Amino acid sequence: MKFWRRKKRDADLERELGSDLELEEEEQREAGISTEEARYAALRAFGNPALIREQTRAVWSGNGLESLARDLGFSLRTLRRTPGFTVIAILVMALGIGANVALFTVVRGVLLKPLPFQDPDRLVMLHESGLQENDAKGYTTVSGGMYGEWKKENQSFSSLALARGSRVGLSGSGGQLPEKLYSAEFSWDLLRTLGVQPALGRDFTQADDSPAASATVLLSWGLWKRRFGGDPAILNHSIYVDAQPYTVIGIMPAWFDFPDPSTQLWTSVYHDRREEQMTSFSMHMLDVVGRLKPGVSAAQGAADLSLISRRIHYAHLNDPFVFRSAISRPLLDHIVGDIKKPLYVLLEATCCLLLIACLNVANLLVARAAARRKELAIRTALGGGWLRLVRERLLESLLLSAAGGALGLLLAFAALQWLTGIRQDMNRVEYIHIDGLIAAFTVGIIVLCGLFSGFIAAFSASGKRILGALHETSRSVSGGSARAALRKGLLASEVGLTVVLLIGAGLLLKSYERLRSADMGCITQNVLTMHLGLPDARYPTPAQRANFFDTLLARVRGLPGVDAAGFVTVAPGQGYWGDWGFTIVEHPPLPQGSGLSANKLWADPKYFAAIGIPLMRGRTFDFGKRLDAANEVIISQSFANQYFPGEDPVGKHINAPLRHQTAEVVGVVGDARSEIGEKPLPMMYFPLGGGVETVGTLVIRSPHDVQQYALLVERIVAEMDSDLPVSDVLTMNQLLGKHTFDQSFNATLLTAFATLSLLLAAVGLFGVMSYIAGQRTTEIGIRIALGAKREHVMRKMLMDGMRPAVLGLVVGLAASLAVGRLMRDLLYEIKPLDPKVFTAVAAVLLAVAAVACFVPARRASRLDPMQALRTE
């Protein structure tokens, strides 16, 4: 029998029941009973018609679907009758589900989605390690000589290839301005190792990757579209990179950005690098990508390369910077960098927010069930099954969750649009989007949230709890105690999770504050930095380079309002540039295999005063010593402390690979941090007048708006060389802000999640107190009528509300001890158990809880006892 023929079946059932009842009534009248009594006797003999109807319908096929549809309609009508409750519950669910879906989408796109390369699970990034005996923790990039030995002798990799990030100048053409671009140098077989082909043109060949070959270049899809209008005619034509002609041989696919999202063109490494760089075992500057052979693990591959490294190490004991082992890590880990742990922390935060939202909705449903307890009790007494009532609660919860999930998906889409717009610097940002899998994940979250909240509400309105409502009156003071205890337990859980989020946000915010205010060892206010580099093709001699920088600095210093200007390879906060090994002439020879190293930079004599690095001892460079005569060096305080303990370094001499000259230490300057948040490293500064360095940063200090000099300096550079691009024009504050953006972004997001959770907890606490006050209206009225002071009543209500908040606070603080330890790597100069953060969070939460409890408690204490006693 088809379920959609319900009306006909119901009509037939009614006729049959009516006929049977009439026959029974007639038999009772024939037995001598009066007509009125015969009706009641027939009903007693026949049974409850409503129950018979239900039992009969239960055996009809398709009744389950009918019942489900009936319950669904009932749930919709019930939710529609209380729009305030429904809207609040949907919004709470939308916030929790939307945040969770958005962060999961980011984590999946960045961390979980496989790399778009052939068999990406077999691709690894390789490093050299173990400079000292039994030292396997640190690792570094690979030297060209070691790579060559690995490539010839290894048995574990089907291919090994090189990559090296760089920056180049692209000359202007057709009226376009020159520009500075991030580029990469590849070995000819890197794209084959990755399993990638150009979208247009061809790949590098082995013939392209040699010093004697013609210069060739691959363009990114974005650069090709932006700079060359997407014209395929650019293939096999020349462009000028660092003032040298390069033939464009291919255009890479739009999604390809290896090794960095900002990379816009690729050249061949053996063509661009000097032979001594590519054969040295101690110049570590290359990234090596390896493809493991089938059946070979990453650990086996690293062990294979370590055997080769150990042999090379012992064959070059006189060179202290030849490493003795190799390590590998998945290529995906290398590409995503340091963002992995912060993303997982944020995802865990959204899971907490989602759980808080579910607990809040469960609390609302429990209150709703409490308000309807007599209705549910009457339905149960009339034969309504417990499972039927549970199903209604679950359907209500699922409807709320579904509506919240739909709205949450829209919020997630908007959040992702915002995030991908401001975080274009994030690796793999192009893979962050909502697709079928994310939609399925959203549906799963909706169902789980609906079942979780619904089962809690169903548990609160089940069994004896329902039937007990028939014995309650408005003067019963204990009937709702179990429900109130459940709601307080849920609230304590919300508060505990909120405390965890607040402490995590507090730790990250304090860490960011410390990081942003870290002493860089220099002036950061009113300082402008500009990057530029001289191409070797146009400035091949040291004299040309030295003259250019001398002229540039003289003209910049002559600008009105400029207090000082200087030039350095890398300004503080711009990152690590490179280090050199050296020896100290006046010190005894080092044992075999030992060596000294320090960061190496080039600077002009006035640089230190321009950026405010103090001169601690000695003097700066002699202006009269230039080119080959520039055999001086200035060291940092860390250098002096580490390598000249207890002695005056001024007047000592250092042997470093600077045209095989010995440099005299003429001064000691204060420490400056290469990277914000890192300890100062030993540094040695060589004179810019030596003409060795070709790239660096111009530093300008002025008491006025320093940014006004950007255009003026660019014009000076253009007048000196119209094809020389200037890039990264930033104030020192902007530079530091750029390098702390990740920390700021993470702290801001976690704080937003924590604030939302605090708001939800406050709303939940307010709701609990309002519910309790409403349930105890008669009791409170009696107490006041019998002489209880209103202040005493308010204090007692406040204590009832604060108990779950304090319990949740204690549990949350205990859980935060473990969470803080997990966040240790994300914190700068603060402890995971920072007492100020814990105290501040406790104070804020207790204050918010007190405010949320005060309003219902005050309202309860101001009840009119006569009005309360009339309520039944």
Notable characteristics:
elongated, alpha+beta, 872 residues, 52% helix, twelve-stranded mixed β-sheet, six-stranded mixed barrel, single chain
Description:
- The chain is of the alpha+beta class and 872 residues long.
- It is built from 28 helices and 23 strands.
- Strands 1, 2, 3, 4, 5, 6, 7, 8, 9, 10, 11 and 12 form a twelve-stranded mixed sheet that branches. It has a six-stranded mixed beta barrel with strand order 15-16-21-18-20-19. The protein has a four-stranded antiparallel sheet with strand order 14-22-13-23.
- A hairpin with a 2-residue loop joins strand 8 (238-241) and strand 9.
- Helix 5 crosses helix 15 (386-422), helix 13 packs parallel to helix 24 (741-775) and helix 18 runs antiparallel to helix 24 (741-775).
